[in-house]
Design brief:
Layout: H1 9-43, H2 47-75, H3 77-97, H4 101-129, H5 135-163, H6 167-171, H7 173-187, H8 202-225, H9 230-252, H10 266-295, H11 301-307, H12 309-329, H13 332-349, H14 358-386, H15 393-418, H16 431-459
Length: 490
Amino acid sequence: MNPVRYGTNAGRLVLLATVLGSSLAFVDATVVNLALPELGRSLGASAAGLQWTINGYALSLASLILVGGSLGDRFGRKRIFMAGIAWFAVASLLCGLAPNIELLIAARVLQGIGGALLTPGALAILEASFAPEDRAKAIGAWSGLGGVGGALGPFLGGWLLEIGSWRYLFLINVPVAALVLWVASRHVPESRDPGAARSFDLAGLLTGAAGLGGLTYGFTAWPAHGASSPVVLIPLIIGVLGMAAFVLAESRSAHPMVPPAIFRHRAFTGANLVTFLVYAANGGVFFLVVVNLQVVAGYPAIGAGLAMLPVTVIMLLLSARGGALGQRIGPRIPMTAGPLLCGAALVLMSMIGADAPYLTRVLPAVILFGFGLALLVAPLTATALGALDDAHAGIASGVNNAVARAAGLLSVAVLPLAAGLGSGSGSLTESAQLHPVYRNAMLICAGLMAVGAVTAFLIIPSRLPPKPAPNRSFCDPASPPIHPRAEVDQ
């Protein structure tokens, strides 16, 4: 079977399946926040119980996302993606039927496992299914459409809460998952690494899950408990030791889950460094801008939520073009210019203060930020996946997703503290105290974007090296492809 071409019906259906599938995991990570008050009243849940409905999902998702990518490379990306969708649907049904907070938390942990299986698979399917000249455009379209899903999620969630119950937020996932499974089963080609061992790297699984899980838990608990609390320190220590053990285990394994040699690729390592920097900045922006607009500028909640909507619109319209531009001129220039535009936008955002008019003070910065992301995101993701041969598309996606999530968690935990919160001069609910914290945070995020631009300019090549041509299509839907496995450290 020939690779899928962008703009064809086959290409649209592959995009539909991957966008809807990944949107399930992304939207569910955020929209449940809307339901916490009603959920607490309905189940008589404590504040700690409500917090764990959020943290339980994030913890299992972040802990196992590398596993999802590795399983896809070994056993088939379509197969693992569809297994993740089905798992997520069953877990969502359990969430919707949960009679108490304890069972809801357990079901949310199961949801996170499903999300870890499907999330890296979506991008890996795009990388392995589309023709090389169309991959950047496909990833750009996936980014833009995924942004639309993320923007519409809170509105859909609010509507479902208005007309019914918090349970609808979970139950609606079931028919959406059924649609994804139907489209994927008929139209998504299978792909895998034909040279991968079918045995699994148990040591890598356990140490990687302990490392990512410990770091995720520690960073999540940091804002509420403080850096010196054992609730924060012990998980962070476990996380650091777990990641060190993971590196050691992978270097000694005959069939590692994450082959250490992939980091010898300069473009892959550089793309993930840039990912960490820019997604740390993004995490701070999307967390603090909305809060500042409400507390300092006096916007209503819905107005603050809509304030960043132009970013989504710009991403939808221009992400595919940004990917095509990176394909045409190489990734270095877009990955340098994009963070610089974002950094300039964040300097403007740092000036948003009391009674700031939207059209003249907020909107210009938001539009500039959207243009920067549209220029950056698709070439960045395409480089992270395209730097390795197609055999490693799943683990490349898993690593990049894990880096982005770790950066966002670290940012939300550390950025307010670095900007002055908790030092006696900061509060997220008092206007006079929040404003200097917000201003400092936006300037720190602008600095992260600038460092990301410099990193991209110095490390990312002007052109990715060509991949070895397979002897047979890598997208055979009936059987695994047969071609010599490219060495990852060439």
